[in-house]
Amino acid sequence: MTADCVRSVLEHTQDVGVEVIVVDNHSQDDSKAIVTGEFPSITWIDMGYNAGFARANNAGMRVAKGQNMVLLNSDTLLIDDLLAKTAAHLEQDPDVVACGGIQLYPDLTERPFFKSLATFRRFQFIYPPSGFIDKVLLKLYPDSQHIDSEQVDWIPAAFLVARRTTVAQAGMLDEQFFMYGEDTDWNCRLGRVGKLKVYNDCRYIHYEWGSHPERKGQVITVINRILPQITVSNLVWTRKEHGVGQFLILMFNYWLMVPVYFAWKMALNVKDLTNPFAQLENQVKYAQSVGVVSRFFGKILFKKKYFYKI
Fold first, then answer.
1. Are 198 and 99 in contact (CB under 8 A)?
2. What CA–CA distance (Å, rounded) separates 137 from 248?
3. pLDDT score recorded for residue 75
4. Residues near 284 by beta carbon (within 8 Å), at least 6 away in sequence
C-alpha cells in the first residue's frame, strides 16, 4: 500500500519538484526494503516505535526542504498532478494558508467530510435518534458560513498542504495526540493564520482503514460510535480548544447514556416479551468504552502534558 502511494506521487507529479519522505511507525516487516528498493531517492525515517500520526508527521516536516509541506496518508493514491494543482492554487490565492482536495472512494465517488467544525462538534454527542435534540444542537453549534464554497474549517489530513511559512506561524502538530484529534487541533491553529480551502478540482483516492481492514463497511450506530482512541483524542481537543465546560458536558453525556441505553434495550425486551437482560452485548461494549475513556478524565480536565495513547 505504501509503495502504491509513493508510486502514484512520483508517476503523476510533473510540474513541481517533490521530495518524498516516508515515516515508519515501527512496521516490523519488510516495508523498508520493498519501498526503498523500488524508490531509492526517497528519505526513510524509522521512528523505532508506534509514534502515532502527529509525532511521525512532525519528524517528516522537520527534515523537509520544500516551500510547501504535504501530509499524505499511505492509504491514498494520486490520480493526476495533484501537487502541481495545489501549488498553483496557493500561488494564485495568497490568503489561503493551507489546502486539500476532495477525497474519493476507490470507485471515484466522493467521500463526505466535515467542512464545518460545528458539524463535528455536534457529531461528538451520543444520544438516541431525536429530531428535537438535533435541532437543539444545531442551534447551539451552528455551521460556519463562508461566501466561498471551497473555504472550510477543516481539511482532511489524509492530504493536507500547508505553506512552510504557515507551519512556522501555527506550529507543528501537537505531539500529545497519538492518533485522531491532532488534525482537528492543527486545522484550528492553521485557520487562525489564514483561510483554509478544499479545492473542487483537486481529487485523490483515500481507501481509509488501510491498517484496519476489518473496520471497512462497519455500520456506525449511536451505540458503537464511542471508539476509545478516537473519543479520548477528540476530548483532548475539546478541552484544549473549547474549555473545561464543553469537556465536562461531553463527559456527562457519555456517562448518562450508559444507564439510558441499558434501560432502553431492557424496555424493548419487555415490550417484546423476552428476557429483559437478553442481547445487551452492544450496551456492555458501550459501557466498557466509556470506562476506558473515563480513565483519562483527570489528565484531560487538568490539561496534563501526556501522550494520549490507548
1. yes
2. 16
3. 95
4. none
Confidence of residue 117 (pLDDT cuts 50, 70, 90): very high
Are 199 and 83 contacting, i.e. CB atoms less than 8 angstroms apart? no
Cβ atoms of residues 83 and 9 within 8 Å? yes
Calpha distance 61→188 (Å, rounded): 19
How far apart (Å, rounded) are the C-alpha atoms in residues 118 and 154? 10
Cell of 179: 492518533
Other C-beta atoms within 10 Å of 127: how many? 14
Model confidence over 15-25: pLDDT tens digits?
Answer: 999 999 999 99
Q: pLDDT band at residue 212, thresholds of 50, 70 and 90? A: low
CA distance 151 to 199: 8
- Asked whether the predicted pLDDT for residue 91 surpasses 90, the reply is yes
Task: Output the pTM of the full model.
Answer: 0.93
Cβ neighbours, 10 Å, residue 234: 22
Statement: residue 223 has pLDDT above 90: no
Bridge partners (DSSP) of residue 197 are 99, 151
